[in-house]
Amino acid sequence: MRVKKSLGQHFLKDREVIARIIEAVDPRADETIVEIGPGHGALTSSLLERAGRVIAIEIDRDLATVLRARFGDRANFALIERDALALDYCAIIAPATRARVVANLPYNISTAIVQRLIEDRACLGEMVLMLQREVVWRMVAPAGARERGYLSVLIEAYCEAERLFDVPPRAFRPVPKVWSTVIRLRSRAQMAISVSDEDFFWRLVKIGFMQRRKTILNNLRRAEGEIGESIARVGGPVVSLALAGIDARRRAETLTLEEWARLAHVLLDARL
Ligand code: SAM
Question: Which InterPro entries did the record assign (predicted)?
Answer without folding.
Answer: KsgA/Erm, rRNA_Ade_diMease-like_C, rRNA_Ade_Mease_Trfase_CS, rRNA_Ade_methylase_Trfase_N, rRNA_adenine_dimethylase, SAM-dependent_MTases_sf
